[in-house]
Design brief:
1 helix; mainly beta; 112 residues; globular
Length: 112
Amino acid sequence: MRLKAEPWVRHTTEPGFMFTPRKGWFGGVHFSWSAAANDYVMDRISHRTEALSPGALRDELAAIKNRYGTPATKTATAMTWSQAGTTLTVTVSTAAATKLSSLSMVLRLDAP
């Protein structure tokens, strides 16, 4: 499916869509122009949620680690997994005043 025949005018807005993967979460899919494919291709999927209690955050992180294994890199606020042309980055930020956290996951896909 050709979304745009003239990639040189893509400075306006690249296509994407938003979705709700589950209650309390927000998701987005981004497409960028690929000269090799001569079309738009999906290059990024993101999920995020906010206002997680410490227990809910611990459960979410445990589920992610259970699904993807040990991260390739890890800092105090981010974990990254890389495999077969994809990179998953999980970032956590916590508000000091409320002790509630936000969690975002971004999956980046290599261009074809």
